[in-house]
Design a protein that fits this description.
binds nicotinamide-adenine-dinucleotide, Quinone Oxidoreductase, Chain A, domain 1, alpha/beta, 2 domains, Rossmann fold, 17 strands, 380 residues, binds zinc ion
Length: 380
C-alpha cells in the first residue's frame, strides 16, 4: 500500500450541493488529519433518517455543499498529532456523538453526553481550526456531525471513533454507528427489562425494532409492538415482537388497550416514534408500582409532554435516552462483541445494498419507507 500519511488524498465523495437534490459523486481532496484527528478509509456506510432530514433541510439550518453520512465502518489510514490510542490499520466505527474522555459527562458513569463532541448538526467544520478537511478545487465542502462518511476517506476527531474487533465484518457492524445501537441501548441500558417481563415498543422502524431486539436479548416473554402501519407487524415478528396493536383500530386510547391485554400495564415500554401522542401513551401504558417508560423519538419543536402527575406518584418512571446511553468509545466495542458471539442479530436489519455510485437509490428506498437499512459499498 502506498503511504499517504501527511499528504492530501484525492478520492470519491458523494456531495450534496443543494437541499433535496441528488448527491453527486465528485473527486474531492481530503487534507491530512490535524492534532487529535484521524483520517479513515470508509469501506461501508449506511443511510439513516437523520441524513435525509438534514439533506432535505426543511426546518433545519441549510449548510451546503456538504458531505453527509454517519453510520459506517472503516480503517484508520493515518493519525494526527497527539493521537495515541489509534493506529493505521485499526478498524473503527465513526459515531455522530463523541467521547472526549476528559469532560464531566465523559467522567460520569451515568452520562454519554460529552461536552466537547456531543452531536452538533450546525457545525460543518473541524474543532481544531474551524475549517473543513474536504475541498474541491480549493472550495471547502462542509462536514456533517463530525463523521461525513459518504466519502472514501474522511477526517474525524479521535473521540468520534470507536475502535472495534478487527475480525468483525464491517459490512454488518457499520449499522451499529447510530440507529440500531440507539434502540438496543434504550432497552438494555435504560429500560432494563427483567427476564420474563412484558415490553411494549412504540414505533416499528429500525430504531423500534432494535429496541425489540434488546427486549428479546433480555429474555422478555411478551413484546407488544405498536405502530400506525399494520403491515409492520409481519417484519417485526423476526425481531421477537409477539403481539401487535394499531392505535387507529381502537376506539379507546392505546394505553387502555394495552392495560387490558396485560392485567394493568406493561413492565417496560420504549417509545421510538417521535410522536408526542405515542410518548404519552408509552408512559401511561406501564404498570403502576414498577413500570418504566423510555423515550427515544425526537419530538417536534413545539411539543409538550402532558400527563396527570398521579401517574408518576403511582410509581411509574419516565426516562429518556440519547444514543441508547452508550458511551461510543467505551461501550460500542462490547456491542460489536454481542454480534460476534451471536447474541445480537444484525443481518435482519439489512434489507438493501447498493454500490457507492448508486447512493441516491438508498435515499429513494428511505423516502419510500422501503426496508430498514441499506448498506452502501464504497469499493463499487
Ligand atoms: N434519542 C436518540 O438518540 C435517537 C437516535 C436515532 C433516532 N432517534 C429517533 O427515533 C425515532 C425512530 O427512528 P426510526 O428511524 O426508527 O423512524 P421510522 O420513521 O422508521 O419509524 C417510526 C415508526 O413509528 C410509527 N409511528 C409514528 N407515529 C406513531 C404513533 N403515534 N403511534 C405508533 N407508531 C407511530 C411509524 O409508523 C413508523 O413505523 C425518530 O424520532 C428518530 O429521530 C432518536
Ligand atoms: Zn467528553
Ligand atoms: Zn442516525
Amino acid at each position: 500500500m502506498v503511504n499517504t500519511a501527511g499528504q492530501v488524498i484525492r478520492c470519491r465523495a458523494a456531495v450534496a450541493w443543494e437541499a433535496g437534490k441528488p448527491l453527486v459523486i465528485e473527486e474531492v481532496e481530503v487534507a491530512p488529519p490535524q492534532a487529535m484527528e484521524v483520517r479513515v478509509k470508509i469501506l461501508f456506510t449506511s443511510l439513516c433518517h437523520t441524513d435525509v432530514y438534514f439533506w432535505e433541510a426543511k426546518g433545519q439550518k441549510p449548510l451546503f455543499p456538504r458531505i453527509f453520512g454517519h453510520e459506517a465502518g472503516g480503517i484508520v489510514e493515518s493519525v494526527g498529532e497527539g493521537v495515541t490510542d489509534l493506529r493505521p490499520g485499526d478498524h473503527v466505527l465513526p459515531v455522530f456523538t463523541g467521547e472526549c474522555k476528559e469532560c464531566r459527562h465523559c467522567k460520569s458513569e451515568e452520562s454519554n453526553m460529552c461536552d466537547l463532541l456531543r452531536i452538533n448538526t450546525d457545525r460543518g467544520v473541524m474543532l481544531n481550526d474551524g475549517k473543513s478537511r474536504f475541498s474541491i478545487k480549493g472550495q471547502p465542502i462542509y462536514h456533517f456531525v463530525g463523521t461525513s462518511t459518504f466519502s472514501e476517506y474522511t477526517v474525524t476527531h479521535v473521540g468520534s471513533l470507536a475502535k472495534i474487533n478487527p475480525a468483525a465484518p464491517l459490512d454488518k457492524v457499520c449499522i451499529l454507528s447510530c440507529g440500531i445501537s440507539t434502540g438496543l441501548g434504550a432497552t438494555l441500558n435504560v429500560a432494563k427489562p427483567k427476564k420474563g417481563s412484558t415490553v411494549a415498543v412504540f414505533g416499528l422502524g429500525a430504531v423500534g425494532l432494535a429496541a425489540a431486539e434488546g427486549a428479546r436479548i433480555a429474555g422478555a416473554s411478551r413484546i407488544i409492538g405498536v405502530d400506525l402501519i399494520s403491515k409492520r407487524f409481519e417484519e417485526a415478528k423476526k425481531f421477537g415482537v409477539t403481539e401487535f396493536v394499531n392505535p387507529k383500530e381502537h376506539e379507546k386510547p392505546v394505553q387502555e388497550v394495552i392495560a387490558e391485554m396485560t392485567d394493568g400495564g406493561v413492565d417496560r415500554s420504549v417509545e421510538c416514534t417521535g410522536s408526542i401522542n405515542a410518548m404519552v401513551s408509552a408512559f401511561e401504558c406501564v404498570h403502576d408500582g414498577w413500570g418504566v417508560a423510555v423515550l427515544v423519538g425526537v419530538p417536534n419543536k413545539d411539543d409538550a409532554f402532558k400527563t396527570h402527575p398521579m401517574n408518576l406518584l403511582n410509581e411509574r418512571t419516565l426516562k429518556g435516552t440519547f444514543f441508547g446511553n452508550y458511551k461510543p468509545r467505551s461501550d460500542l466495542p462490547s456491542v460489536v462483541e454481542k454480534y460476534m458471539n451471536k447474541e445480537l442479530e444484525l443481518e435482519k436489519f439489512i434489507t438493501h445494498e447498493v454500490p457507492f455510485a448508486e447512493i441516491n437509490k438508498a435515499f429513494e428506498y428511505m423516502l419510500k419507507g422501503e426496508g430498514l437499512r441499506c448498506i452502501i459499498r464504497m469499493d463499487a
